[in-house]
Design brief:
The protein is α/β, with parallel strands linked by helices. It folds into 2 domains: 5-106 and 147-162, Flavodoxin domain (Rossmann fold, 3-Layer(aba) Sandwich), CATH 3.40.50; 107-144. Helix content is 39%, strand content 23%. It has 6 helices and 8 strands; from the N terminus they run βαβββαβαββααβα. The protein has helices spanning 14-26, 59-65, 83-89, 112-127, 133-144, 155-162, and strands spanning 5-9, 30-32, 44-52, 55-56, 67-75, 98-102, 104-105, 146-147. A hairpin with a 2-residue loop joins strand 3 and strand 4 (55-56). Helix 4 crosses helix 5. The longest helix is centred in the last third of the chain and has 16 residues, at 112-127. Bound molecules: flavin mononucleotide. Flavin mononucleotide (FMN) is lined by residues 10-16, 50-54, 74-77, 103-105, 110, 114, 117-118.
C-alpha cells in the first residue's frame, strides 16, 4: 500500500528535515504527529521518528491511528544499520518496511531527561576499560555531535516509495 501522507516526530530538527526532504521528493503532504488531528483515522502514512534507545519516538501513537506503510528511524547510527534492534524494540511486523537514517546530534538543543541520558551514555562508555570498535565509534559520534543529514541517506526509502 502506498502512503498518502508523511507524519513525523522530531526533537532537535533532523527528523523534521528528512520529512521535509521526503515531502519534496515524493509530493506527499507532511504533518507533525502532534498535529495529527488534521489527518483522518486509518490514513496510510509513512512514519518518521527519531531513535531513542532503539525505539522510534511516536511510532506507537501513530500506529494506533494510522495505517503504517513504512517506518523510518532517524538516529546517530549509520544509515541502514540497527534494523533488527529497532524492529524488535517497537515490535514492528516483518511485513512493514523499516529504514534507519543517520540524522545528527546537537547538544545545545538537548534538555532535561534527554540531555541527562546522553551524558550518562558518554560517561558510561568513557569509564569502560576496553571499548569495542562500535562503542568507540558511538562514543566519538555522541561526543562530537554534528549534522549528518544528506539526500543520499534517503535512497533506500525513496526506492521503496517508487516501486
Ligand atoms: C536520549 C537519547 C537516546 C538516543 N538513542 C539513540 C539510539 O538508540 N540509536 C541511535 O542511533 N540514536 C540515538 N539517539 C540519537 C538521536 O536519535 C539523533 O540525535 C536524532 O538525529 C535526533 O533526531 P531529531 O533531531 O529529529 O530529534 C539518541 C538521542 C538521545 C537524546
Amino acid at each position: 500500500m502506498k502512503p498518502s501522507a508523511i507524519v513525523y516526530t522530531s526533537n532537535t530538527g533532523y527528523t523534521a528535515e528528512y520529512a521535509r526532504m521526503l515531502g519534496e521528493k515524493t509530493g506527499l503532504p507532511v504533518y507533525e504527529l502532534s498535529n495529527m488531528d488534521e489527518l483522518k483515522k486509518g490514513t496510510p502514512i509513512l512514519y518518521l521518528g527519531w531513535l531513542f534507545a532503539s525505539n522510534v519516538k511516536g511510532y506507537k501513537k501513530a500506529a494506533k491511528k494510522f495505517q503504517i506503510t513504512a517506518v523510518c528511524g532517524v538516529g546517530l547510527c549509520d544509515t541502514g544499520t540497527m534494523l533488527a534492534e529497532v524492529r524488535k524494540a517497537i515490535s514492528l511486523p516483518e511485513s512493514t518496511p523499516l529504514f534507519t537514517i543517520q540524522g545528527g546530534m546537537d547538544h545545545s538543543k538537548l534538555h532535561g531527561i534527554n540531555k541527562m541520558m546522553i551524558n550518562m551514555l558518554i560517561k558510561g562508555l568513557k569509564a569502560k576499560a576496553e571499548r569495542s570498535e562500535d562503542e568507540e565509534r558511538m562514543l566519538s559520534l555522541v561526543q562530537k555531535g554534528g549534522n549528518y543529514v544528506s539526500e543520499e541517506n534517503l535512497a533506500a526509502v525513496l526506492a521503496w516509495h517508487q516501486k
